[in-house]
Give the backbone structure.
Amino acid sequence: MQVVAIGTDIVELARLRQVWQRHPRRFLERHFVPGEIEYCLARSDPIPSLAVRFAAKEAFQKCWPERLGWLEVWVEMQGRRPRLGFAPGLQRQIEEGGFRAHLSLSHEKRYALAVVLLERVEP
């Protein structure tokens, strides 16, 4: 295994809440895939879950050499463990490059944080 990049991002919950309240539908549809929207809106307060997913997308972008669209990367849950999902073209690049992405998420009262570690798996 070879670490290729580490990306991190932090989001202030109050700031994200303001954006979401101004343009709720447009904000959601522009930044999140349907599975993320469904997962987050099922929470009593969706903002922490939305913010940590927003941070995860930004953290992955900091690892990847090309600019990506918001809907090319998303957070999926495997039980209680989060993992990144990718649009088919990006998934193909990751597989062909021998990459694997690891994700860690955290949020508290005021902030959400995501860390992505991108590694190249050696045969």
Summary: The chain has five helices and five strands. Strands lie at 2-12, 73-78, 81-86, 99-107, 111-120. The chain has a mean pLDDT of 96. The radius of gyration is 14 Å.
